Amino acid sequence: MSASLPIIIKLEGVEKTLGEQPVLKGINLDIPKGHITTIIGPSGEGKSVMLKLIIGLMRPDRGKVIVDGTDLARINDRELNDIRKKFAMLFQSAALFDSMNVFDNVAFPLREKRMVAEQEISRWVPEMLGRVGLGNMGHKFPAELSGGMKKRAGLARALVTGPEIILFDEPTTGLDPLMAHAIHDLILAMHKTFRFTGIMVSHEIPEIFPISDWVAMLKNGKIIAMSPSGEFRRTSDPIVREFISVNNGIHPTSG
Amino acid sequence: MMLTQRIGKRVLSLIEEMGAMFVFLMRTFGWLFRPPVRIVQIIKQVHFVGFKSSFVVILTALFTGMVLALQGYYSLRKFGSEGLLGSAVALSMIRELGPVLASLMVTARAGSAMTAEIGIMRITEQIDALETMAINSLQYLITPKVVASLLSVPLLVALFDVVGIWGGYLVGVKLLGVSGGAYWSSIESAVEWKDVYGGILKSISFGLIISWVACYKGYFTRMSAEGLGKATTESVVLASVLILVWDYFLTSVLL
After folding, report:
1. Chain A interface, mutation test: which of B125, B135, B138, most A Cβ atoms within 10 Å?
2. Would you list the DSSP string of A10-55?
3. Which are the contacts of A170, defined by CB distance < 8 A and separation ≥ 6?
4. 8 Å CB contact between B153 and B205
5. How close does chain B come to A52, measured CA to CA in Å?
């Protein structure tokens, strides 16, 4: 990667074993600030584990996770909580709180952390819901929402605190192609507005190429390729080509 | 060799789980006294554990008292001392049956629901979502439940005692013809402060056992629907067994 890009997150030789199975076997990865970086790779390769390491939900067995110059392994819980204030995460299942309606879900991080006045909340939350296309859904409960609407609500909850970094764990899994496309468009539009650093884990090929600035591929516990999205698509690396082609619905030898 | 290995493995995992449970309890205690105090959450939980269990507690208490009076009457009649029926019912209620049976009912009703609720939050990544928002999940989710149990279970036990003694009165006095005056006065002369105090001590410790086991099992639910079912079953069984075992030890110390 070119040296001029400011790096916000750095993984150095990260290894992680779950149970008795080594998942990550020495990850080296630089995440450029203010861009969307997408990590692709076969299922069960530990892509989600990587996100959990980056936000400190898990700790690496070996190696370093450095966020904005701070090594996550060297800090206590309170300092970790300070770091987490830079983050938001959109979970695979959206992870909305069942016991609250959509409005309260989106207001939750504001009420808990920012100590924003209720007046402000009653202005901000509907505005954010409007941006993600859920303008009149504030009173609904998560159980009443479709998969796509849950993702939208999850995205609103992630954006509402104005985080520097947003992690997307397979944001379109379980959605039909049209809805997946709409969510990708929404992520791109929100990125243009809020300029956060996005780290996305996905296997939606080729849809992720137009919305990603950088693409990295995880295979056999290592990052085997990373380049700007346009270059990545035209890569000559046979393993990457095969993965892209298969997921594209094109036979690998025909390209 | 195989057998000894298997036994060794079981023993080790048992010790490991005991250690994990103890660490969980200590960490929960650590968060118990840190601000913010979540009054609304605590009230909600008292409503759930206490108020919503009161019907089943009243029902079981009534029938327990009634059957005690029935059994007691025929035993005491052999010695011509039916007049002591009141004290027999009241002492068994206050010392043993009230705390133990009320706690077992709360375990079955509220403990299992607590495990399921926390377990679902674990499986659907809601607990992770809390952590990524820099909110400690033990403090937000677990401590209100522990506090609510510590408050509710002694009150439910008191309710159980009163209703049970009244159920004994119904059968003993109204049905079998023991003198009402003798029933109440034998209670008054036989029950000492020591008995009541022991019952309260038991009920407080049972309240802790119920919430501790239920929260622990829910918090560490394995990521599947099967895991959730298993966690709920284990929670009820373990809490019930611990209540009876702890009851024996506490009784032997108190007597």
Report:
1. B125
2. EEEEEEEEETTEEEEEEEEEEEETTSEEEEE--TTSSHHHHHHHHT
3. A47, A48, A92, A201, A202, A203
4. no
5. 9
Instruction: Supply the Cα-derived Rg of chain A in whole angstroms.
Output: 18
Q: Which domains does chain A have, with CATH numbers?
A: 1-86+165-170+197-255 (3.40.50.300)
If you measure CA to CA, which chain A residue comes closest to B129?
A: A95
Please state, in angstroms and as integers, the Cα–Cα distance from residue A11 to each residue in A47, A53, A64, B44, B55, following that order: 13, 9, 6, 43, 56
Q: Does A21 touch chain B (CB under 8 A)?
A: no
- Split into its structural domains, chain B has a count of 1
- Model ipTM value: 0.86
Say if B186 falls within a structural domain: yes
Residue B15 lies in a domain: no
Q: Show pLDDT as tens, one digit a residue, over chain B (255 residues).
A: 688 999 999 999 899 989 999 999 999 888 888 877 888 889 999 999 999 999 999 999 999 999 999 999 999 989 888 888 999 999 999 999 999 999 999 999 999 999 999 999 999 999 999 999 888 889 899 999 999 999 999 999 999 999 999 999 999 999 988 888 989 999 999 999 989 999 999 999 999 999 999 999 999 998 777 889 999 999 999 999 999 999 999 999 987
Q: Buried b vs exposed e over A117-142: b needs ≥16 C-beta within 10 Å?
A: eeeebeebbbebbebbebeebbeeeb
Mutate: best of A57, A141, A167, A170, partner B, most B CBs <10 A: A57
**pTM of the predicted model as reported, rounded to 2 decimal places:** 0.86
Residues sharing a CB contact under 8 Å with residue B66, sequence separation 6 or more, in sequence order: B167, B168, B170, B171
Using the Cβ of A95 and the Cβ atoms of chain B, whether some distance falls under 8 Å is answered with: yes
Q: State which residues form the domain around B188.
A: 39-254
